[in-house]
Amino acid sequence: MNWIVFLLFALILWFVVSRMLPVKGLRNLSEAEAHTLLQTPDEYEFLDVREVHEYERGHIPGFRNIPLSQLPSRMDEIDRSRTVVLTCQSGMRSLQAARVLHKRGIRSLCHLRAGVGGWSGKLVR
């Protein structure tokens, strides 16, 4: 019986730790770095993975919306030849989105570390 409890604990621990590990090859961007990348939009694919109602309340100019919940079914909308730059509200969902994209073969990934919540620049509606 003790081994079952130990196994259950180990599985829960593995699940929690695996969600916190960084995505291999993911580059964390500061706000200043994101501003720089936005100056060359043809080289990057800018995605805001917040839900539609959040995006409509205000988003960073240049980022288009593909909610995390829809990402697996909308992979064909992403240009795999460009580096994908992700954002969300705080940086957590963009990390999850990076995991989804990485598992589907997209290796050139960045995300705005502080998300839209940490963006001091202009937001559009």
TrEMBL record:
SUPFAM superfamilies: Rhodanese/Cell cycle control phosphatase. Residues 40-125 form the Rhodanese domain. CDD domains: RHOD (cd00158). InterPro entries: GlpE_sulfurtransferase, Rhodanese-like_dom, Rhodanese-like_dom_sf. Gene3D superfamilies: Rhodanese-like domain. This is Rhodanese-like domain-containing protein. It comes from Tumebacillus lipolyticus.
